[in-house]
């Protein structure tokens, strides 16, 4: 059920967060407009890339760090590999991340909001 905890990686991420002026959470919510889930994810990814391009154009240091994700699909199944029948409810953020962002379990099941990562500025 995920990778073992890496103490050194944790301290590096904590150090980078403390050095940042701003940290922007990249959240994606499957809208009620009927757009495919993958389109919603791609839209947030493109917006993040545009933010990084603007930062670079203004000579501001910024980077995108992926968010912690738990895959509750079964290994080897199409659900865990992003196959045709992949459902967003199978990818979840860890409880600590969800709590920090104010997302509860009800939100995850009904609106399918997940954190794709963070932009550190």
Automatic annotation (TrEMBL):
Pfam family of the protein (one): Nitroreductase
Disordered: annotated span: 68-105
Residue spans of biased composition, Low complexity class: 72-83
GO molecular function, one term: oxidoreductase activity
Signal peptide: none
InterPro entries reported for this sequence: NAD(P)H_nitroreductase, Nitroreductase, Nitroreductase-like
Annotated ranges, domain Nitroreductase: 27-68
SUPFAM superfamilies according to UniProt: FMN-dependent nitroreductase-like (SSF55469)
Transmembrane segments: none
PANTHER family in the record: NAD(P)H NITROREDUCTASE YDJA-RELATED
Protein name per its UniProtKB record: Nitroreductase domain-containing protein
Species name: Pseudictyota dubia
Lineage of producing organism: Eukaryota, Sar, Stramenopiles, Ochrophyta, Bacillariophyta
């Amino acid at each position: 059920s995920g990778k073992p905890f890496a103490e050194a990686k944790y301290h590096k991420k904590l150090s980078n967060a403390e050095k940042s002026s701003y940290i922007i959470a990249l959240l994606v919510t499957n809208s009620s407009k009927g757009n495919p889930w993958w389109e919603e994810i791609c839209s947030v990814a493109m917006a993040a890339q545009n933010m990084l391009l603007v930062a670079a154009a203004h000579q501001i240091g910024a980077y995108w760090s992926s968010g912690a994700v738990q895959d509750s699909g079964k290994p080897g199944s199409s659900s865990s590999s992003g196959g045709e029948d992949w459902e967003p409810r199978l990818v979840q953020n860890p409880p600590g991340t969800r709590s920090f962002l104010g997302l509860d379990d009800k939100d995850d099941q009904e609106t399918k909001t997940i954190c794709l990562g963070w932009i550190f500025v």
